[in-house]
């Protein structure tokens, strides 16, 4: 299942996440298993340290590059135009590809740094080295400043989003500019498996709790990137296209929202 971004580029709604996947065999085997299972969207980042392993899995899969959607991210230590271009090329070299489908600013820093790094990303976009631009962990005020100063409207804001932090207001704000959300940590660092309402829904639909959460995101037009390094779970996590949650069950999940963060607050990180 694909959706079209605001520049017409199509992105698969379910991808394989690689956060905390160890470089080497762990990441390689996870990505290769995902590609064999039908995934066509891979999400990594420079800070994960596993871009080389992701690239090797892509090459060894035998799947044409143009059939894949590959995302990586610019780390917050990169703070100027030239360093952004260098960091981008470093990621490209490690991945062993000639272009990226999506490049994200990993965390907001100061408005000035974001404008400068994004300006370099825009030039890379115009050089046809990146098919779509985006950001990660941006709150409404970060988005507003970038939108006032950019030439290329971001396509994606990748954020912490799960049943305990549902981000409806941020989603509405982004959608007003044609920006989609991507959910990271949809399983709430494992806490999702302990939530009774999700257990009951999994039983009702004869699906896993991961399936329920991923399907919930899809029905909200949110791109989901569940992470696993176990081949059986990677395959099962992708089993979300043969059922639909009812409106009543979507409301059951909505009531789980506590607005609790399990990762850093974007307004309180070191610059």
Can you name the CATH architecture?
Alpha-Beta Barrel
Number of helices: 10
Question: How many domains, as an integer?
Answer: 1
CATH fold category name: TIM Barrel
Cα separation of the termini:
37 Å
Main beta sheet, described? Answer: 8 strands, parallel
Give the number of DSSP strands: 10
CATH class: Alpha Beta
Low-confidence stretches: none
Structural class: alpha/beta
SSE ordering: EEEHEHEHEHEHEHEHHEHH
User: Could you estimate the helical fraction of the residues in percent?
Assistant: 40-55%
Strand percentage lies at 5-15%
Mean pLDDT: 97
Radius of gyration: 18 Å
Shape: globular
The largest sheet has its strands arranged as: 3-4-5-6-7-8-9-10
Helices, strands, pairings?
Elements: E1 2-4, E2 10-12, E3 16-17, H1 25-37, E4 41-43, H2 51-61, E5 69-74, H3 81-95, E6 102-105, H4 111-126, E7 133-136, H5 140-149, E8 156-160, H6 168-175, E9 180-184, H7 196-205, H8 209-219, E10 223-224, H9 231-237, H10 247-254
Parallel strand pairs: 3-4, 4-5, 5-6, 6-7, 7-8, 8-9, 9-10
Antiparallel strand pairs: 1-2
Helix pairs in contact: 1-2, 2-3, 3-4, 7-8
